[in-house]
Specification:
CENP-V/GFA, 9 strands, globular, metal-binding, mainly beta, zinc, lyase, CENP-V/GFA domain-containing protein
Length: 147
């Protein structure tokens, strides 16, 4: 799948033809990052994306932030376009410094992304109604929790 920021300075292909999952996250950080009611991320293997290509390294800025569960000791490694400011992707860095082997690419940047299977997380913080019948979690699923 083709990924491109708003201005086109950062672009790449996903390492697989479809994401592992698509999430609509309603946490405060995703709302702030998007300036909207939630953030949408498509999860892909990080291999083939990170480290960024030389051209994308020149065009992107890296920023580290505490993970949503600030007591977890995990961090978010985030990448933005230096030109248009769009968040491109992020991944979790575990408490021991190990990066996850997956990345969350911002859904709106992925050409032809299938949004129908999206799941919702941090719904307890949602500022918009969650559609009935969708897979949803008040915080995060147990399998995503640290340690």
């Amino acid at each position: 799948m083709d990924v491109q920021c708003q201005c086109g300075a950062v672009s790449f292909k996903t390492p697989t033809p479809a994401p592992i999952a698509v999430w609509h996250c309603h946490c405060r950080q995703c709302r702030a990052q998007t300036g909207s009611a939630f953030g949408t991320s498509a999860i892909f293997p990080s291999q083939g994306i990170l480290p960024l290509s030389e051209a994308n390294q020149a065009a992107a800025q890296r920023w580290i932030r505490p993970a949503e569960q600030s007591d977890s000791g995990r961090e978010g490694e985030c990448y933005f376009c230096k030109t248009c400011g769009v968040r491109i992707l992020h991944r979790i860095i575990e408490k021991d410094g190990t990066p996850r082997d997956s990345v969350a690419i911002k859904g709106g940047l992925i050409k032809d992304l299938d949004w129908k299977s999206a799941k919702h997380l941090f719904t307890k913080e949602a500022v918009v109604p969650i559609p009935e019948g969708v897979e949803a979690y008040e915080t995060i699923p147990a399998y995503m929790r640290p340690g």
